């Protein structure tokens, strides 16, 4: 089936692909360039860090299994100086390895084998989230089809009425809605909401997420806005 012509971005987005599998690199480079992205590729962690410093990519697609260092160490090296979005692309499926990458600073995690359309959608979302926001309150109001969050006033409206949230529910909601579409790890949520001494009490998150869903989701049993990524964390979708 013929594909529709790719839409050319106003300003080409630069992508750094870090992977030691030539077939995957080739497929990514072809698909990204066909959509008018600028692409650099690195076969190992050291080259990735050098290219990132020299070329300043807008987004990084990173394999964890590199020949010279672990991908988590590349993430930590990048996070020492840049907030560039990092999408992990890895065959590792163990929850602890996924959580380690997210806690190191990755923004998203895609498991190999992957669908190219899904990866490109995740990449576009990461670039959108990283785009600079305006001042004068822009971005303070978060609207979904079901409810509205006013971050400045610390209020939530649904069906024309205020929704009463506990302080813990509000804090959890605030952390999630400030990163729409981004996978937020369980450890990050626990430490931001309950404090740095917390990191493994996933039952806290299950309880409070269930309460948020009951108050804000149209169908709490089939959530649209507060999505669970099993073993990893949660994602807020508008």
UniProtKB/TrEMBL annotation:
Q: Where in the cell is it found?
A: Cytoplasm
Give the DNA-binding residues.
139-238
Limits of the OmpR/PhoB-type domain = 139-238
Keyword field: Cytoplasm, DNA-binding, Phosphoprotein, Transcription, Transcription regulation, Two-component regulatory system
Q: Does the keyword GTP-binding apply?
A: no
**Transmembrane annotation, as ranges:** none
Q: Which PROSITE patterns match?
A: OMPR_PHOB, RESPONSE_REGULATORY
Superkingdom of source: Bacteria
**UniProt cross-references to Pfam families, sorted A to Z:** Response_reg (PF00072), Trans_reg_C (PF00486)
Single Gene Ontology BP annotation: positive regulation of DNA-templated transcription
List, alphabetically, the InterPro entries matched: CheY-like_superfamily, OmpR/PhoB-type_DNA-bd, Sig_transdc_resp-reg_receiver, WalR-like, WH-like_DNA-bd_sf
What is the protein's major site of localization? cytoplasm
Has UniProt tagged this entry with the keyword Transcription regulation?
yes
Gene Ontology terms: cellular component: cytosol; protein-DNA complex
Gene Ontology molecular function: any one: identical protein binding
In the record, which positions carry 4-aspartylphosphate?
63
Response regulatory domain segment(s)? 14-127
What does this chain do?
Answer: Member of the two-component regulatory system KdpD/KdpE involved in the regulation of the kdp operon. Upon phosphorylation by KdpD, functions as a transcription regulator by direct binding to promoter regions of target genes to positively regulate their expression.
Protein's UniProt name: Transcriptional regulatory protein KdpE
